[in-house]
Write a structure and sequence with these properties.
Elements lengths: L1 H5 L14 E2 L5 H11 L3 E6 L2 E7 H9 L20 E3 L4 H11 L3 E5 L5 E6 H5 L6 H9 L4 H18 L6 H26 L8 E5 L1 H4 L11 E5 L5 H20 L17 E3 H13 L3 H10 L3 E5 L2 H16 L2 H11 L22 E3 H20 L6 H10 L5 H27 L7 E3 L5 H24 L8
Parallel strand pairs: 1-2, 4-5, 8-9
Antiparallel strand pairs: 2-3, 5-6, 7-8, 7-10, 11-12
Helix pairs in contact: 4-6, 4-8, 6-7, 6-8, 7-8, 8-10, 11-12, 11-13, 12-14, 14-15, 14-18, 15-16, 15-17, 15-18, 16-17, 17-18
């Protein structure tokens, strides 16, 4: 248990703080001699204390020896790799290994708040901590060769989260872990499909995820919300090939254990597989006609994040959304209004209101009770600011930095969000242990007095935020 917690501690606790550095104009041979004398395989290139690039023994082999270049007269700048991938010293260790895996690199420069070099962390450093760690699971995913491999690994993710949920790790880190591992599963699946039967698939497309997956805020009750965007210039045969790939991909995801979306929001369906131009037209329809259905669908789509392929399509659609809502704010106001329709379940004298009958008798839907209001209220403010990237936490921090939210207000919202998500995750973990399908309900009677008090405080914070949204967007002007 203690070993698992290592991966959610800050990088500063594990990085090597004594880093050998050089400057880009230094003579290559002098730096190589330093590497030999100190028995090191890399040197960080800095400019005025800021990491600029990196020079490794592999660069020497591949860019000098293998090419028959004379090292005399060469400078480090001639063969170094730049820019250098970095990570903040307060980021958790799991984030470091995730970035290394995603970018297929072996080391990260660690920087302080000002961006100055504070250390270096390598994949070898992380591997020393524990063989059966989240990092090992990432490596296993990278090496998966079949759908059967990925099916077993997908189940392993659930087992890993069940274990970590009892270790006291912050819920936002668990969400990041779940999202990161699920990302890697899907990317590896795409790689396997492309290698086996879709090697000639055109590159001018993007597979995007949306909703909570787009915000990297998944827990244990997660189905699919995804789509495909492809280039307007693709010919009919290429479009047909993308369609065939989409069907194979979604069917494969279902086969390895990722549930289908009950509403059909999946790239295998024609409504969720369009050219860039057609997606613009569809967005215009949603934005110009803010019916409740269009508001819900459009709001979910706005969390889109490119998981595989060309990110330019995502950026183009987000710019389109920003421009449209800036000139025509009615959709934005309706989206904000929608989050105010979910009343917090607090009755007279501060009593929690629960389901009176049915299978969820005595329970509260924690998503409807408060999680949805926070995520969509923050999303509305982020859309107004033209900054839809990142998680709800990222957006809250951005809005606080921009002065849209006060510092205390932002901190309270983050605390409320974390507690509500923690309650949902705990309920889902308990459901799995009892052999039930996880959902968004929690049984109030299972909470102790302190937890019930915290829940009421969190829901009070949600109600205050809803009132803030009403005033901020002047929702009284809309009517019903």
């Amino acid at each position: 248990m203690a070993e698992d917690n290592h991966f959610f501690r800050p990088v500063r606790d594990f990085c090597r703080q004594q880093v050998v550095t050089c400057e880009a104009d230094d003579a290559l041979l002098e730096v190589v001699r330093t590497m030999r004398d100190r028995s090191i395989s890399s040197v960080v290139v800095v400019r005025e204390g800021m990491p600029e690039g990196i020079f490794t023994d592999r660069d020497l082999r591949n860019k000098v020896v293998a090419e028959g270049r004379a090292p005399d007269g060469l400078r480090v700048a001639d063969i170094m790799n730049a820019p250098l991938w970095t990570i903040g010293e307060d980021d958790v260790l799991y984030e470091a290994l995730y970035r290394m895996s995603r970018r297929n690199i072996h080391r990260l420069a660690v920087v302080d708040e000002a961006g100055a070099l504070a250390g270096i962390v390598t994949d070898t450093d992380i591997l020393r901590l524990q063989a059966h760690s989240p990092h090992q699971l990432v490596l296993d995913i990278e090496n998966a060769a079949s759908l059967d491999d990925l099916r077993a690994l997908h189940a392993n993710i659930q087992e890993r989260v069940l274990h970590l949920s009892a270790t006291g790790i912050p819920v936002r880190e668990i969400m990041k872990l779940i999202a990161g591992l699920n990302d890697r599963i899907q990317v590896r699946l795409i790689q396997i499909l492309r290698a086996d039967e879709f090697a000639d698939l055109p590159d001018s497309f993007a597979f995007v995820v949306m909703g909570s997956e787009g915000r990297s805020e998944q827990t244990l009750s997660t189905d699919q919300d995804n789509a495909i965007i492809y280039d307007d210039a693709l010919g009919p045969d290429e479009v047909a090939h993308v369609e065939a790939f989409s069907r194979a991909l979604i069917d494969a995801l279902i086969s390895i254990g990722v549930p289908p979306c009950p509403g059909g929001i999946m790239a295998k369906n024609a409504d969720w597989r369009r050219s860039l131009g057609d997606w613009r037209s569809e967005l215009n329809l949603w934005l110009a006609t803010p019916t409740p259905e269009n508001v819900m669908t459009g709001s979910m789509f706005m969390d889109l994040r490119t998981l595989y392929g060309d990110p330019a399509f995502e950026l183009a659609l987000k710019r389109h959304i920003y421009a449209y809502t800036r000139d025509n704010p009615v959709f934005l106001m309706r989206m904000a209004q929608n989050m105010t329709r979910f009343a917090t379940p607090i009755g007279w004298f501060g009593r929690l209101k629960v389901e009176k009958d049915g299978e969820h008798r005595g329970q509260v839907d924690i998503k409807k009770a408060g999680i949805f209001a926070i995520t969509d209220g923050i999303k509305s403010l982020a859309l107004e600011a033209g900054r839809l990237d990142g998680s709800t936490h990222d957006r809250i921090e951005m809005l606080a930095a921009e002065g849209v939210l006060g510092e205390r207000q932002a901190a309270d919202l983050q605390a409320s969000f974390d507690f509500l998500v923690l309650m949902r995750l705990r309920g889902q973990v308990e459901a799995l242990r009892q052999g039930r399908t996880p959902d968004n309900y929690i049984a109030v009677e299972t909470l102790n007095a302190m937890e019930q008090g915290e829940l009421k405080l969190a829901l009070d914070g949600v109600a205050q935020f809803q009132e803030f949204i009403r005033k901020h967007f002047r929702l009284h002007l809309l009517g019903n």
